Amino acid sequence: MSHQQGKVTWPGERDTVLGLFEYNGTVDVAMTAIHPSAGVLWQHWRTDGNRRECTCGEPPTPVRLIADYGGGVEWDSEACLVCGAITGTLSPYMEASK
Ligand SMILES: [Zn+2]
Q1: Which terminus of the chain is more exposed, N or C, with fewer CB under 10 A?
Q2: Are 4 and 67 in contact (CB under 8 A)?
Q3: Could you tell me the distance, in angstroms and rounded to a whole number, from the CA of residue 71 to the centre of ligand 1?
Q4: pLDDT averaged over 10-residue windows placed end to end, the chain, 98 residues
Q5: How many A from CA of 52 to the centre of ligand 1?
Q6: Strand spans (E) along the chain
Q7: What spacing in Å lies between the alpha carbon of 79 and ligand 1's midpoint?
Q8: What is the pTM of this model?
């Protein structure tokens, strides 16, 4: 399994799950769509249905992304919770671009 289900949480509140995303462990990059349920996530598994961009133009929200890949990875990023899209850093091994 090179792809894992990841969860979007508030920074510092890792038990509050805002949504789910697909984590591509092969290249260590998160797919950008945030889905409210695992069913929808799996429906679009490994397809462009799990990619999404913010189209509303609202300011992004700071989030913490957590995936159970390998020993587990997590990192700070940003997302538009209105559109359901990760807009910030997509990889735990990528420095946030300011
Ligand atoms: Zn948006």
Answers
A1: C
A2: yes
A3: 31
A4: 93 94 96 97 97 97 94 95 98 73
A5: 10
A6: 3-10, 13-24, 29-30, 61-67, 73-80, 85-86
A7: 8
A8: 0.92
For position 97, what pLDDT does the model report?
52
- What pLDDT is recorded for position 70? 83
In angstroms, what is the span from residue 56 Cα to ligand 1's centroid? 4
Could you read off the pLDDT of 63-75 as tens digits, one per residue? 999 998 888 999 9
Percentages helix, strand, coil for the chain (3-state, rounded to 5) are: 10, 40, 50
Q: Are the C-beta atoms of residues 34 and 41 closer than 8 Å to each other?
A: no
Alpha helices, DSSP H, located in the chain: 38-43
- The candidate with the shortest Cα–Cα distance to 19, out of 34, 39, 5, is 34
Q: Return the bridge partners of 77, or none.
A: 63
* 69 alpha carbon – ligand 1 mean position (Å): 27
